[in-house]
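Protein entry
_____________
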Amino acid sequence: MSTFAIALGVAFVVGSLVFSAALSSGFTRLFGSSVGDVVVRPQGSTTLNGDPSTRTVPQSLVSRLARVPGAARADGNVQAIGVFVVGKDHKVVGGLGAPTYGISYSDAPAGHGIPGLTLFYGHAPHGRHQVVLDEQTAQEAGYFIGEKVPIVTATHRAVLTKRLVGLAGYADNTSLAGATLTIFDVRTAQELFLKGKHAFTNIWVTAQPGVSQTQLRDDVARVLPAEVRAITGDDAADENASQVLRGVKFLRTFLLIFAAVALVVGAYLIVNTFSILVAQRSRELALLRAIGASRRQVSRSVLLEALVLGLLGATVGLGLGMGLAYGITWLIGLVGLDLGSQSLVLGTQAVVAGYATGVAVTMVAAWLPARRTGRIMPVQALGDVVALPESSIRWRFASGLALTAAGVAATLEGLFGSLSHSGYWVGGGILAVLLGVTAAAPILCRPLLVLARGAYSLVFRAVGNLAGQNALRNPRRTTATASALMIGLALAGTMSIIGASAKASVDETIEKNFIGSYVVGSAFGQPFSPQIATRIAEVPGVTQVVKQRYAFIEADSHRSTLTGVVPGQAATFGLKLTSGSSDLAGRTVLVNEKYAADRHLHVGDRVTLGKLPVGTRGFRVGGIYQDTPLVFDLVTSIANLEAAGFADSDNFLIVFTDPGAGSLLQPLRDVVEKLPVVTVQDEQQFAAQQRQPIDQLVLMVDALLGLALVIAVLGIVNTLALSIIERTREIGLLRAIGLGRGQLRLMVTLESVVMAVLGALLGVALGICFGVAMMYALRDQGLEVIAIPWTQLAVFLGLAVVVGVLAAVLPARRAARLDVLTAISAT
């Protein structure tokens, strides 16, 4: 079981590394296939969050670039996002994280001669009525060549219907990783996404044989007009992939955190296992000392066992890790991130990390029990096992309290201090608290063990008294086993409180600040067509439709969010101005009072907005308003957003209706019936939608913590099994004086329940402390409500009893099957 615990932890490490490596490789191949040798694009071609801007290069530039020395050809491209294919089941294909591209067709090769977009079936699109899809999207949507395809865009033409004339993709079966391609001919793409301008989003310049990308870039740069730049395809691919690969890195780190939790829990199991083994073999080790073995040799023999255990567990973990990687790939594929033919490879990094992790954790965990073998004296070969002195437990208690105090200080500093890398302080502090509580637990939990013994004696009489005495006999072992379960439940309890508090904060915020009657938004968090606002305003009973748009920018070198509104509708948000006015004429912004206080802004001051597609622009502060969740740091007019190069599409619509019109929910939904990417919700439905991601995150974290809980249960089983071996003679004597098999099973089960409940109590208590502290630290982020889900925590305690009963099944069965005479004669 110790080997299996290590194998599970190593499997999580290996699976995370193998999956993330495959994901990174897949995206690298994809972006390498989607750029030319040299990419020419306008400055500010993308916004701060990576979306295409409205900046373009003139179509006339293509012929000039084709004549550059070293250039084989030049091809213009049009690209947009937020183009969704609606399947035959009226569901949108893709959109769950991966981009949904709308592009113009081009047969230009990618960089280094790699085949670019390739037609697999059919022909290229011609005219405004034809479209080509990538093969995976067409398959998921259920369309065949010749059929009509409904398409939703974020442009002024919200719904399109095109005939499918071909299926395309990238060469070498490069996976789109969940992205979708909707491909139009060049003129149609210009009409849809560039408002008919004879221009391109970018231009690819293909190098002649023997011409390097760097050389061609330099030659191309000499003929470019101002505000147009050229970069090599390699740099463009790296730049395009950087944001995605940062997400992959975050996902890998996220998974490895839970792998670390599982390994820490596994280390508890190994410490306990080797402690019991060393105690059981103390007489054998003393005999070795008596015939000349040194302390170092005896300790090394224990560490050698740990090395073998670590190597075996890591080897098994490699195999399990590959299986886990396939499982993660399948699970991620369910939400649209399909790796396609990208193979999962057990690379050198994963193998080295797996063996290093398995061996290191096992050796470190076994070091303390191995070190204790040095206390065994040769004379002990004449007697029985000698228990460790009580002074050791008292020293552990003092050091545990000190470590807990240090952990609390580190956690508070990470949560409330101003040090950099606060996450490491919080993580290290929590680990220190858990280790400190574990060290202090033998004395800290002794009253609970005494109470359990008393309760058992009252309910189960002599059998209960025996079980209580067994739990008290070695409190170090009992609490160490319980501590493994404590870690998992402490983290699960913390997440439960964070989730419950976040949902309560969302409900309170929406209840206090919800305006209008209905909210129109996107099911995928992406902008949608401005045509929808016009259609909804025509519904009888609708009195006003208020638009909201968001843009990520830098204001005075700080990343901020700019909200765009129609100038005449600014007052509708209920902004309470502390100074100035809500007039948004010209280059004017309204500023949140906290934001203004942090940057010492006043009405009339100039604020510099950077990272705009058009570059840096200066704005005048027209007013300062009180903090509200309805808008973000700065507010300006929608016209200013469009002039800055942001797309002409909305993020939210707030719909006001005539009170006498009754419910307009269904009439409004009828308007967007053909646009499944758009949602219409009342206050309750909107609040439920905001709570859904929180529930999904908590569920995912609990599922990942389940591995640590499985290892903790293995620890209870292992401890009970080894304890029964250790007490073989005692059990034989109990059977000889009349203890029945059923009573013996009950005794072992009660011992198991004590360990499980003790771990659950410690875990829930620590989870409450961690959860409340973290929510208090997040109060400035709008999470002002602290809610403790007592029912859920009570369920954790109830499950602990079930875990204790189930963990005792095999050890109790083994104990009951011991032959009485053989057990009595055991030494």
Notes: The mean pLDDT is 85.
